[in-house]
Amino acid sequence: MAYLAPAEFVAKMIDAGESKIFMSTKDTLIRAYMAGAILALAAAFAVTINVNTGQPLAGAVLFPVGFCLLYLLGFDLLTGVFTLVPLALIDKRPGVTMSGVLRNWGLVFAGNFAGAFTVAVFMAIIFTFGFDTEPNKIGQVIASIGESRTLGYAEHGAQGMLTLFIRGVLCNWMVSTGVVAAIMSTSVSGKIMAMWMPIMLFFYMGFEHSIVNMFLFPIGILLGAHFTWGDYFLWNEIPTVVGNLVGGLTFVGLTLYSTHFKTSPKRQPKGVYSLVD
Description:
The protein is mostly helical. It has helices spanning 6-21, 25-53, 56-62, 64-72, 78-90, 98-128, 137-148, 151-154, 157-184, 188-204, 210-222, 229-261.
């Protein structure tokens, strides 16, 4: 069958998390770099669609192509390892430690950022003819996104920070659901279909994805948007990373692990007693 039962795919989630912890530094960085670069290209693609068609739904429908490509190529996003890697620690796999989990997260963050920033530089060159002209229409829209999603949150103070955090939580609830959905299918078509739905949802709803933002905000700064690197990290990236961690681990990883892998004993039907009773 092309579908794995929950107990089967949760076991695969734990295995995947364990393998990522013991992956070499070189492989971890390369896979994270490529994931960040591909997702950044998909974000640029989606914004271009939105600008050219005037239909945000069209961009959301097509954005998941990047996520599907990077997953099928075996590359790693920070949002995915937030969900998978801790399960190996929680399951007490031999040799798995908290320092190993943090090492993986740190390497994937660095690789994702480097890949996304590379594409940000490339696209900034395209939008400005090598920084020789003002940004074109697409570049102007991207720059405005960076301003509204940093300074826009800052205007609301603590309430803005809370809103940003919750959007990060909801984002990785959906993105990690896409990761798990791909694991539960054994066919390429099934994986793509299962990934597509939650990724489309998060993008259209405007939830905050730490790796997408590694592209959108640095390119905004390169294009002359009116916010700083400090604004970006304080009023977007850091709260988004924390929200992504909480959303993926709490609403996807731990819930699936606790109910499909470490299941509780079934209740006895009313009026039926075991031999011990």
